[in-house]
Amino acid sequence: MTRIALIGFGEVGQRLAHDLHQQGELDLIVWDVLFADLNSTPAKQARARRLTMAPSMARAVADAELVISAVTAASAVDAAQEAAKAIPSATWFLDLNSISPDSRIRAAGAMEDAGARYVEAAVMSPFHPHGVASPILLGGPHADTFDAARFGLSNARTYSRTLGQASAAKMCRSVVIKGLESLFTEALLAARHYGVEETVITSLSGILPAADWAEKAHYMISRSVEHGARRAAEMREVAATVREAGIDPIMSTGAARRQSWASHRIAGQPSLTSQLDALLASR
Known about the structure:
The structure is a single chain. The chain is α/β, with parallel strands linked by helices. It folds into two domains: 2-163, NAD(P)-binding Rossmann-like Domain (Rossmann fold); 167-281, N-(1-d-carboxylethyl)-l-norvaline Dehydrogenase, domain 2 (Orthogonal Bundle). It has ten helices and eight strands. It has helices at 11-21, 41-48, 57-61, 76-84, 101-113, 165-194, 197-204, 213-244, 250-262, 272-281; strands at residues 2-7, 26-31, 52-53, 66-69, 92-95, 117-123, 136-139, 156-160. It has an eight-stranded mixed beta sheet, sandwiched between helices. β1 (2-7), α1 and β2 form a beta-alpha-beta unit. It is globular. The N and C termini lie far apart (52 Å).
């Protein structure tokens, strides 16, 4: 049996646990900083799935052949540094977190000092609905020797042996994707206030490829509301990526603020209009 330690048991971690169980011949152990509170959502989910819950990071990684990090972007480097204190030599460390190239280098440095093999993994689409079959770019000097298919990562491929390039591709993509979510949220909230949202949406068909823009706007705004805290953390890493390139991250910083604002609002509205009304009411 191959021992896999899954660090972080939020939305992505829970989907990973489900998918990894489908592979067979895998011994999965999970750890999350919130396991200290037995009534936390991660702890309840782990018990409901009858997973082996590690009492600490050190116990989780101690006997693992593969450690997968799926924590928050803000915690990614700290998680790698903590795991490095107990990780066995030659263990694989797959970092799925959305962080800047500089953050990758710091996380990888801790792993290399411990003798572990660090691989960056840039997920190039929403992790749902494809899970481990999501398109993933692998990077770093160990990327081309990591057998991703063995662990069910069927759509992962080596992108670059230069650490940080896969992350740069992911982060620059996020400027557009999460920037669009933020633009739709801000533009259509103002349009709804003035009662002109239908005119704005209809006008988009004249400058962009034909699409149901009301549906797309509802989808994008809903993602900001439901996942805004995580997406804001990622956009702060995006801003760091842009800043590291010597560019003032004006758009990325603004998107991070809008994503964070949306995260505290009412989710689950069935239509664009009802979602906009709920957001306006919560100002």
